[in-house]
Amino acid sequence: MDIDDILASVDRHDTSPESAALDHQLLTRLWVAERAVSELLPWPGPLMERMMERVRKQIERIEDLAASSSDPYNTTTTSTNNPTLNLKLSILQTDLARTQFLIRSFLRQRLAKLTKHSMHYLLLVAPPRASPTPSSQQSHTQTPEDFIPDPADNPNPSPLSAQEAAFLHAHQTLLAGHYGASFLNSFPPQLRRLDDNAGGTSMVQGPEVREAVVVSLGRRCGWGMCGL
Q1: pTM (2 decimals)?
Q2: pLDDT of residue 187
Q3: Where are the annotated segments for Disordered (predicted)?
């Protein structure tokens, strides 16, 4: 049994070693691309579902092998009687650590972009709330949290995932509450919006899309190069 066979033992029945290796390659490319650009790239939903399912099955496989190797009543699969068991565990744990590193780094990079430009991405996936009328301002004290867009009604908050959209809304609501308690609540109601664009100047800052990026081109396509 070689390394590919060991890694394939944790895959689903409809997953080949080639497709698992391709998923790893795609995840690596997405991780590099996410770190190379300033804006948030579209969420790779199907790929992340496959990778998370593979991680779950791999953890279960490692736990089963570790439990069987430490069972004193099982004389056929202990590490003493089966010298390849430790090697198999080491290979599976190394592959799991590699996958977990890519997923964590990929998610942390996306979260860093979301928290840096939270209002920009909220307005991108959810319509802004309307300004209150004078009568509603008199009957209700508006707070900065009241103007935070809610992406819950958007079934496809691309380029965010549904979980990222929920996190972003909660994060921005807490941030608006902090700003309100600190200084914004002392302002007039019409000046408490965090997405104010009065006078033609928007308070919302998005990512800098004119930054230079490094692109890796892997194969020639016609007169130029294409592919990563």
Answers
A1: 0.77
A2: 85
A3: 129-161
